[in-house]
Amino acid sequence: MVTAKPPGTSATDGARVDARVLRTREVVLSSAVDVLLEHGWDQVTHARVARAARCSKVTVYTHWPERVDLLRDAFARVGDVVHHEPIGDLRADLVGELRAFRTALVEHRLDRVLAVLADRSEALPELRAVRERFVADGERVVRRILEPVAAGAQHEAMVAMLNGAMVYSVSLGGAPPGDDVLDAIADAVVAALESNA
Amino acid sequence: MVTAKPPGTSATDGARVDARVLRTREVVLSSAVDVLLEHGWDQVTHARVARAARCSKVTVYTHWPERVDLLRDAFARVGDVVHHEPIGDLRADLVGELRAFRTALVEHRLDRVLAVLADRSEALPELRAVRERFVADGERVVRRILEPVAAGAQHEAMVAMLNGAMVYSVSLGGAPPGDDVLDAIADAVVAALESNA
Fold first, then answer.
1. Separation in Å, CA A63 to CA A1, A22, A60, A75
2. Is B183–A153 a contact, with Cβ atoms under 8 angstroms apart?
């Protein structure tokens, strides 16, 4: 971002202005994330974000003339999933990673991020790279766990079944899967892989 | 919907007005569905729907003061999934139903309907019943296929894995699963169920 330095100010004043502008950007983006995660993309309007950030609408419009740019920059501030650290036991690793993913979906509201990206990234190509980043990060560990035991179409099928079951239950089923269902998902994948042998 | 009958008109004129109003509602709702499926919920504004329906914005506002009501009535016009008719062969039935569901997601844009409902129905309780209707219809046949072979948490896990894998791949993976992945999904469920025995 380029900030115009007001004429006649010293370098120190300029640096101070820049720092203030950066701080404002930070506050606006973190407010945009809050509005998004609490109320959904529909509510991420310039007016509502300005209100949440306690700044003027003009400030928000100046930095992000389009809502999609505000959304893209806000998504860049949403952290990655805290994954399970695989220990080399297939079932335990699947259960651990499914639980970590459930926590990310439910407690860190990754479900909202994914719902917005599913809904908007077809019409807004600017968001496709954002969607790909979240999906790649969400699948990273489950792909690593399955790497030694499944390949090709079976590998793809299992990644989609594992992460798909979680996202689907939280976003459309109305409730995250309980531990019994989560265990049954891991068991099904383990049983299917054992039948390979 | 109540339509005010203009004073002094005959019963016949009144009926004619009602028919015209009903026709207008039909056209507006089918235009709202078109805008939704082609461009997403963000674009389902009174102005855009009026333009698509070639009527005035006032007409749209009169019938549906709130966007959420327009959306709810538009969703009521979206048809149910054309399901596979089970033949009693577990693998063939799963593959048949996964293909039918993929067609609904991709060709009839059920993916868009579900993405909007995932994103909006938490903030808009009016949409929860709509979401439940689509999820129940989407799962109806897969639940029937699995009924004789899985129960409890395993049944729930498999429904979420099957439908979840499809929705997830189409909406977030960026592409519907190919036939090889779709077959591998069915195979995994069949193998897991066989290990029950």
1. 8, 11, 5, 16
2. yes
